[in-house]
Amino acid sequence: MGKKAKKKTIGRGQSDAAEEAFKGSPHTLVIHRGLVGKNVGHLVHDFRRVMEPFTASKLKVRKKNVLKDFINVAGFFNISHIVAFSKTESSINMRMLRTPRGPTMTFKVHSYSLAKDVISTLKRHNMEQKQFQHHPLLVMNNFSGEGMHIKLMATMFQNMFPSINVNKVKLNDIRRCVLVNYNPEDKTLDFRHFHIKVVPVGMSRPVKKLIKAKVPNMSNFEDIADYITKGGNISDSEGELDGPHNEVVLPQTIASRGNIKSANSAIRLTEIGPRMKLQLIKIEEGLGEGNILFHEYVTKTEEEVALINQAREKKRKLKMKRKTKQELNVKKKTDKKDEMKKKTLEGMKKKAEEEEESKNEKADSGMESDDSIGDAEYFKQEVGEAPDPELFPMNNKQPRKRQAGSSLRDNYLPYKKKKLETTDDRTKKQKRESNKNTEKVQGMKKFSRDNHKKNDVNKKNKLGTRVKRGKKVTNKKSGRRR
């Protein structure tokens, strides 16, 4: 039985160094502003995949969130750049902000293709998850033109991705590539995202199959030499694309099979999306609130720029004035609140002292009244007569005293106990109630009979007489008037 494999432990120094390297790398926050639709939402998700692992892949933007919210938390989460997508009726815009002091670049998205659309056009795609564990390699082309805005744009893209030290870089960590190409004819940018694959050069297709992890089916061959010689005639369409333009000598051994140090290997790129065509519209100082350094369509004179600066300065001063006024009002409010709290505590303390004094006064007055009562009684016993009320003005009425030997229990008279009802008592009670009900019913019947009689008499009086030519006629048989 073999030895139990030991777990690989990372030293504390290595973990601290990795954490410092992670914090020192640029972090990009990719968000959207306003209603952008389903397709632009997918574009935001694909752009986050490009910026992994130094981005928030599962960030949820709410309707209430504004740009200032993300700017305020940028310093806490070591966020160096913010990419915000927005959509208008005419176009889709992408803004890049460098925190915390700017500048801000606004790009117009002329056209784009999502990652799923790009992958659907490929026969073989490489979308392994391990390639997103490391940042991509940035490749920039045609950014050597004249113009300050081109240099600033190139610097912005370079600072969005971590720098690579050629002497310390590990080739196994470079799995992706981001290409940004500038077209000086129409002043647009081509943004592409590729997967990097390294394959050995000078091997036939059967040999490539043999060095793979999966062993090919060789049941039709008697010897492996037959497999290599007969299988070598098979055309390799991928090998036809290789040449001096993509062949290199590896300085390091790569994890894939057949790629060893100092051997020739071919580098193949497979596009994994997204794909965008951008155009720079304007560059602003600060985070979208400063002077406009560059604009593609609008140019202003020095006088117009001075007027805009004056208006912006006036607005800034007014804002500062309102802010200081608000701070003073808040301070006054808090001071007033503290003063009221202090007064309340003093009043509560004073009230407690007054209550204590009143209790003491009541106790003293009770003692004096007892003394005065005792003096009046003493005067009566000695003199034999009751004293004048003016002599002892306090309270001449003596409180009632209990008799000696008597207690509260002796003077207590309990309530009369209720007599328990028996069956005879219940039957008598029921008979009394039934008699009352029968009398009530009989009275109601008698009242109704009397009312019926009265109604019959009234009907006879009304229907029995009629007037004919001013004379009353009575029916002889019925006795009614006719």
From TrEMBL:
Start-end of Basic and acidic residues biased regions: 325-365, 420-439, 447-459
GO molecular function: rRNA binding
Pfam family, one: Brix
GO cellular component: preribosome, large subunit precursor
Region (Disordered): 314-482
UniProt GO BP: ribosomal large subunit assembly; rRNA processing
Skewed-composition ranges (Basic residues): 314-324, 460-482
Name of the protein in its database record: Uncharacterized protein
Source species of the chain: Owenia fusiformis (Polychaete worm)
